[in-house]
Amino acid sequence: MNKKFVHIFLIIGAIWMFLPFFWMISTALKTQTEALKFPPTLFPQEFIFSNFTEAFKEVDFARYFLNTIIMTFGTAILVFLTSALAAYAFARLKFFGRDLIFTIFLAMMMVPMPVYLTPSYVILSKFRWIDTFFALVIPWCVNIFSIFLLRQHFKTIPQELFDAAKIDGLNHLQIIKNIILPLSKPVLITICIFEVVSNWNSFLWPLIVTHSDSMRTIQTGLAYFAQAESTNYPLLCAASTFTTMPLIILYFFVQKQIMESFTRSGLKE
Amino acid sequence: MSFYNWSIAGPLKFIGLKNFYRLIIDPKFYQSLGNTFWYVLGVVPLTIIIALFFAYLLNQKVKGQGIYRTVYYLPVVTSIVAISVVWKWIFNPDRGIFNAFLSLFGIEGMKWLNDSRGLFEIIFTPLGINLSGFFAGPSIALVALMIMTIWHSLGYCIIIILAGLQNVPAQYYEAARLDSANGWHIFWYITIPVISPTLFYLLVTQTIIAFNTFTPVYVMTQPPGGPLGTTSLVVYYLYEQSFRLWNLGYANAIAFILFIIIFLLTQLQKRFIEERVYYE
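Above: the input entities. Below: the structure tokens describing the complete assembly.
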């Protein structure tokens, strides 16, 4: 194909992909009257920043941000710990039923989240965890795919290293901390990024396990805001802009790692 | 749990298969299944074909490949809630930019998310064929959701296919060119077979993801589930039964069926499509 045509198609595609973002930011900077003009103006006639501050005043977005940060980093840290320990056990220890347990773990990955939504809710309400951070963090503190990725990686580390460490009198925890983890940095970064992105964006789970306004995450807060202010599009676009911005900024810094982590681990809604 | 009459208050009662019986005669369940069927059938193949097209173009060693990749991948890291809010605004029937764009070409805008008419109904009614129910096809509101979903998952598929394309050994192309095969032949007989495992992987994962769609239905359509329930997908119906009406036992029966369908579908795809997949 002619190079010119290739570029034309690619540019059309890029415009199409970028247009919703452009439109979100453009609307967020307009007044309500200008936003409702038809045919619409592409760029705001004058740039208004009050929509952002006003959205923060209407509902408690500061609180939602805080909740989301606690949830995201709490989960990421726990996943980091559990995955490292479990993967070490699966890769390097010999115990009865190890491979069977690992197979069962992998099979459980096949079950999509909506299927176990209702049972999980009942279990969490028995624990009286509904509407607490426990419900947001604890059920996600084990990620089977992270265990899988790390296990595969641990298996590539030569056995001699472990033997040498044992001879030097290191116990298992010391081996993990001093030898394995420093050797697994790329995989660990992949796992952490995936956890941060998917927790920041998770919606269905927080929607179900939290009720009160003070427990809302940024995503459920935005959905709530969208229903409360269903026609004030400049406000909604402003709110959408600042909920997506942190990840978009992160994306521009660690684009390669993000692509890598999603390519490896698949998507999760 | 699906064998119990289970609501959050009140006693637990074992009712055997009654929840499943109720499911068999529930027209709303069938409607949500039908909607999901059209949704998956529309979203998955189109996403993969469009992604293949763009990945193929990107693989032509064009200048600025990095910039294109960055832009195409951007939707993947943005939350579906925020994106749904923005697309709802884009699809706004009176003020939305989508209809404004159509009107540039003299096409009359549609009501999009408020339109319950089926796609095939609109196409075939002028020809004198009346279609209704399931055969009316996805409603315009559901088509709007499909357009958004394709936009959202395109970048991911492009990057995966591009990675597949870059792994095609260069000597295959050289050999084909020596045999004076033309571009289309090379694409069809060399590129496609070599990347077929990638395409198969995408087919399976995208089907599962599409089956589990919930957020756009919840955020974009009003009332939730859309006009006349035409955007109520299975997972949304499950949510409604479980967490709006608190029929937990019944919701679990739906979840069970959903699981069976997804499981069977992936097995079927494995059986019939994997045979044609070419592994090195």
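Note for the figure: Residues 58-265 of chain A form a domain with the MetI-like fold fold (CATH 1.10.3720.10).
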